[in-house]
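Holo prediction — GLP.
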Amino acid sequence: MRLLIFLLFFGTLTAEEPRLRIEIFDTPEELAEACASKIARLIQTKKNCVLGLATGNTPIPSYRALANKVAQTDLSEVVTFNLDEYIGLAPEDPRSFHSFMETHLFSSLLESPARPRGFKRSNLHIPEGKQKAEEYEAAIARLGPIDLQILGIGTNGHIGFAEPGSPFESKTSVVQLSENTRRDNQPAFGSDPVPEFAITMGISTILQAKEILLLATGSKKAEIIRQMLTQPISPWIPATAVRLHPNATLFLDREAASLLGSLHAKD
Ligand code: GLP
């Protein structure tokens, strides 16, 4: 079951703030199914579609469902841009976001003799390092705009790796990761240190997408989702910037939405 809500920030909604759509799903699996359907529909209807992709545990089930849905679809014209990557990890490092995308989405859908209409590797973009930040931004400008940007959210409100304090005008750049983010991401690194720096799309880069879909699942995200939706829009909670976008949707499962008691369903 899914419940559609338009966000009304009683007391904090400003006149110029567009309405944010919020869809709440009973389970993460239902959310993943809806997310995959939305992406698949776009790929199947929009010629040369440009997708903005996220890493993290949250989108994994959506990518699995998407791979099934588009197994027979021609993906040769689809262009993708990932949000971010650690600095200092080789693309082949299993902990890099390059490896993440390969494992969770690209590997089964890449062009091959058995799959001539798969993703063309040259159409898939993941940022790589300091010297590439401006080039990455230029590539998005050249091949974009991004039709649909998928986002997760960090427990401190980061989107991509745009950490608290990132100006809303920020473009793709190298950033220092917060202690909170490095702690959250420690499990993937075992006893090794989490890299201190990353390259990420900026808030302004993200907001240039034609449409944004932010995903959050699990009780661990409930508090930051509450803050994202009820606190004033500010760089200190980067995800509040999504509230400025004219075409943004949040997909939440019940647990991530569990602290949204003051929101009201409408329409
Ligand atoms: C990572 C990524 C973000 C992601 C976030 C949440 O650090 N850079 O793009 O949204 O953290 O990850 P998860 O979905 O695992 O909670």
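READOUT: The radius of gyration is 18 Å.
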